[in-house]
Design goal:
Length: 164
């Protein structure tokens, strides 16, 4: 039997997507959401997006904030790591949520991607966001407000004892 090369071995492993998002808060504690033009059935989202090849989660988060809002961002903390099960045609994913500060609130949105933004009170996040994104953001706000300790989720839900 022929032994597999290291290259063949790694090529045979399952693919996992990655995304990185930003929790950006106003002085009052509201959360910045963006209105997407490409998802009319789920228009509200968070600043962030898919990690590109060879890109770290933090680098992706900061790049996405700059691309989507037209401002620079400074990282403050990792809040949430969330594994999402595959849901064909989507592969499994790892979602990272970071707390970031932005250099300005004079946002310049890419017209082909975003049509607006809003500061939303944390208690209303589930009225704007759906599924894992809502659960991730609510967990992120909890970490930001209370513990400062990053949490691990699976499909948006806490699975470790003593977690939120």
């Amino acid at each position: 039997m022929r032994e597999r090369s290291e290259e063949d071995f790694f090529a045979s492993l399952p693919a996992t997507r990655g995304s990185a998002g930003a929790l950006i808060r106003s002085v009052e504690g509201d959360v910045l959401l963006v209105r997407r033009v490409y998802m009319p059935d789920r228009p509200w989202g968070i600043p962030g997006g898919i990690m590109e090849a060879e890109e770290s989660p933090l680098t992706a988060c900061l790049r996405e904030v700059t691309e989507e809002l037209g401002v620079s961002a400074s990282p403050r903390a990792l809040l949430v790591m969330d594994w999402a099960a595959p849901a064909p045609p989507r592969t499994a994913a790892l979602h990272w949520l970071f707390r970031v500060e932005v250099s300005s609130e004079e946002f310049v949105l890419p017209e082909d991607e975003l049509s607006g933004w809003a500061w939303v009170p944390p208690r209303e996040l589930d009225e704007y966001l759906v599924g894992g994104t809502a659960l991730r953001m609510i967990a992120g706000v909890h970490v930001d407000d209370h513990t400062g300790v990053p949490v691990y989720l699976e499909n948006g839900h806490s699975v470790l004892p003593g977690s939120i």
